[in-house]
Amino acid sequence: MSTASPARPRHKPHPLLITLVAVAVLMVLLAVTSNVWTDFLWYRNLGYSSVFSTRLLTSVVLFVLGAAIMAGLVIGNGLIALRLRPRTRPTAQSSLLETYRHVLFSGRFRTVLIVFGSVLGLFAGFGISGNVDTVLAWLHRTPFGSPEAGFGLDPSFYVFDLPFWRMTLNFLITCLVLSGLVALVIHYLSGALRLERGARSSAGAQIHLSILIGAVLLVYAALRVFDRYGLQVTSGQLLTGIGYTDAHVRSAAQLILAVITVLCALLFFANAALRRWRIPVAAVILLVLSGLILGLIYPAVVQAFSVNPDEPDKEKPYIEAHIAATRQAYGLSDVQIQDYTAVTKTSAGQLRADAEALPGIRLIDPKVVAPAYEQFQQVRGFYQFPKTLDVDRYTLDGQESDVVVAAREIDLNGLDSKSWNNIHTVYTHGYGMVAAYGNRRQAEGQPDWIEKDIPPTGKLDERQSRVYFGQLHTDYSIVGAPAGAPPVELDTPGGGDQSGGSKMFTYDGKGGVSIGSTITRALYAIRFADPNILLSDRVNADSRIIYNRTPTERVQAAAPWLTVDSNIYPAVVNGRLVWIVDGYTTSNTYPNAQRVNLDSATSSQRATDTGLGAGGRSINYMRNSVKAVVDAYDGTVDLYAWDQSDPILQTWEKTFPGLVKSRDAISPELLNHLRYPEDLFQVQREVLARYHMTDPHQWYQRTDLWQIPDDPVQGQGNKEQPYYLSVKWPGDANPIFSLTSVYVPNARSNLASYMAVNADAASPDYGRIRILRMSDQTQIDGPGQTFNAMTTNEQVATRLRPYLNQGAANAAYGNLLTLPVGGGLLYVQPVYTERQGATGAYPALTFVMSRFGQSVGIGTTLQESLDQVFAGNAGATTGETGAPAQATSTGSAATSSSSTATSSPIAQAALQKAVADAQQAFSDADKALKAGDLGTYQKRQQDAQAAVERARQAMMGG
Question: Which of 179, 171, 173 has its CA nearest to residue 130?
Answer without folding.
Answer: 171
